[in-house]
Amino acid sequence: MSILTRAALLKGPYDIQLIEKTLHCGDDEVIVKNHLMGICGSDKNFYRGMMPGNTNEFRHAPTFPFPLGHESGGKIVEVGSKVTEFTIGDSVISFGWNNNFADYFVAKPFQLQPAPEGLNMDLVALGEPIACAMYSGMNSNVQLGDTVVVMGAGFAGQVIAQTAKRKGAHTVIVVDMLEKKLILAKDLGADRTVNLRDERLQDVVAEVTEGVGADVVIETAGSEEAFNLCSEVVRHNGSFVFYSWVTQPITLNISRWHDDGLNFINTCLVHHTHHHRFVWTPGTLRPVIQDQVDIKSLISREFSLDDIAEAFAYADNNDAAIKIVLRP
Ligand SMILES: [Zn+2]
To answer: Which one, of 96, 115, 114, 118, lies nearest residue 105 by Cα?
Structure first.
């Protein structure tokens, strides 16, 4: 059977349109009807014309015109004859770039994750960004008493900062350049925020830690400045946690990485193997189901899928928006 869907096509920078296309379900594929979709920071980069190199996670190579979208979830409506993992009606989280800004999308079973019991469907649909950020927060090596710097107060930074606090960090410092994001971080439990337009992070960390440096730095901003600042403020033998996806070459000052014996932790849930992701994801979503981490406050604005061009223009003009969602 085939299904007609509306789907987003990014024709070129700043030019996104909804087109109609027919989806065919291969023997080893399923078709999912979307409940909700999320716009990711990486989608914004694509929209602004910054494309990453090709990897095997893309169904379509990242060149224009590009069928955009990866954050979504919903219910399976069609199952290929060789698929044994899922049946029609299953609720699933998408973990793949399958042109998910659409009413329906096609996926391979390994790109999907069963929705855990007790998670509301809006959050199921945001299961990928939630699980990725939670995984980073839960594997960040934060201990009781730590001073933790979270660089970047976007969706991931907000989740990771909450997780650090819940894990027993003494002082969580959230860093950004947009005041609205920092106010939200404070509302969600950050002890201290630093707006880099007003303050030097080096001074704040030196003051808070009496010159020792942060025990853990978590990089979610993805810029050269952010990486270099993290490298400066982490303490001797401290932990440097990677989260962000930097798709453009940057220049790093890494002398301290060697000299101060830094410990590096790569916390990319989806870039180990899908088996690893499959095992880890339920554990990352459990604290969300238990309300230990607030996700709903991170949903800044909802648009109809019909208005995807407006939604992207809004995302482009409002960097302080955390998560913008699209409803079919
Ligand atoms: Zn994403």
So the answer is: 96
Pull the structure tokens for residue 26.
């291969």
For ion ligand 1, residues whose CB falls within 5 Å: 40
Enter the ipTM: 0.93
Distance 192 CA to ligand 1 centre (A): 27
CA of 71 from ligand 1 middle (Å) equals: 6
Banded model confidence at residue 56, pLDDT cuts 50, 70, 90: confident
pLDDT in tens, 120-159: 999 999 999 999 999 999 999 999 999 999 999 999 999 9
CA–centroid distance, 236 to ligand 1, in Å, is 32
CATH number at residue 189: 3.40.50.720
User: DSSP assignment of 228-285, as one string?
Assistant: HHHHHHEEEEEEEEE-----S------HHHHHTT-EEEE--GGGS-HHHHHHHHHHHH
Domain annotation covers residue 310: yes
Instruction: Tell me: do 191 and 310 sit in the same domain.
Output: no
Q: Are residues 160 and 124 in the same domain?
A: no
Range of the domain at 203: 140-266
